[in-house]
Amino acid sequence: MSFQNTVILSIGSNRGNRLENIQQCINYIHHSIATVVKVSGLYETPSWGFESDDFYNCALLVHTAKSAEVLLQSILTAEKVMGRVRSDEKGYQPRTIDIDIIAFNNDVITGENLEVPHPRMAERNFVLYPLRDLLPQWEHPVTQKNITALIASSTDKSNCRWVQKLGSPLDKFSLSGFNYVAIEGNIGAGKTTLAGKISEDFNAKLVLERFADNPFLPKFYKDQGRYAFSLEMSFLADRYHQLSDDLAQFDLFRDFIVADYHIFKSLIFSKVTLSEDEYRLYRKLFDIIYKEMPKPDLYIYLYQNTERLLQHIKKRGRSYEQDIEGAYLEKINRGYFDYIKSQAGLNVLVIDVSDRDFVKNQEDYIWILQRIEEARNTKPTL
Fold first, then answer.
1. DSSP state of 195
2. Secondary structure tally for the chain: helices H, strands E
3. Is-catalytic flag, 352?
4. Are 206 and 196 in contact (CB under 8 A)?
5. pTM to 2 decimals?
6. Cα 318 to Cα 27, 187, 218, 312, 315, distances in angstroms
7. Could you report the per-residue pLDDT of 186-218, keeping only the tens digit for each?
8. Catalytic-role residue among 98, 100, 133, 260
């Protein structure tokens, strides 16, 4: 299961302060367009196909939920922001910045404005050498040639000189300093999406709740009183077995693990859904299990107001969720906050994302990463 597209971009500059242009472009892409996961070394090459100053070039590995066409439009905007003025004159031109999409997953795209993989990439050393830095085992999805074979067969004999190492924007974040992060939230808050994005961007082990496999869930939403206890017991057993099995596969002192739930959510939901007698029985069983479970280094609660939650639930279109009422969601939110207040020994970070969209807006996602980074030394509250 992939939450984002994996894209290779090529960046070049031969006007003005080339190094500064490249670095500003990387930062702009990372904060406004897509997450820059890895950056190649910086290379200097002669201008290709026309007489001009030498270029600085590099390649980026980025993650984005954008389609290839939407990404292209964002890149054209970035070039304008960076001062590039496209001329109607034919042929190549000197440029402050040039950004090309080299590869988009393993897709083959042939469109009026976009061809992927880039049709001339195999003839350009300034693309191939930085690409080898990023992904030494990369293979062309059409020719099936790996990057080593592509360089060996390239007809481009121009010198491609390594200049220096370039830093990656993600180097500023030390999320892997948390061995185990649990991301929680109400129904429709986006916890699974955020956990998936972080796991892909930081190469973390991902643990996802298997809620879709629970046979009592659709029945519960139709008749809560009848199926609440069966549902909560089923969830508790499944969460216990899944976390025990999945976390046992990883070294909690070496691996970076991100989960889209913490087992304590079982108690929060059960308190909302169960009768008083059922809850007392359930609590006894839960307390036995909870003592055995490892606690996360960071517990993140994504808060969204009820109106936004209902919008997201409707948008994702799960039939058995469409009758969920706002009052039920508000009870769950209150249950989470009561739990958070009672957990003095847990490193808790509450993030209000009611007015943010960390899937469509890169700025919002970077803002969340900054909040998580701040939580390394503090314990923010809402």
1. H
2. 12, 13
3. no
4. yes
5. 0.89
6. 38, 12, 10, 10, 9
7. 999 999 999 999 999 999 999 998 765 678 888
8. 260
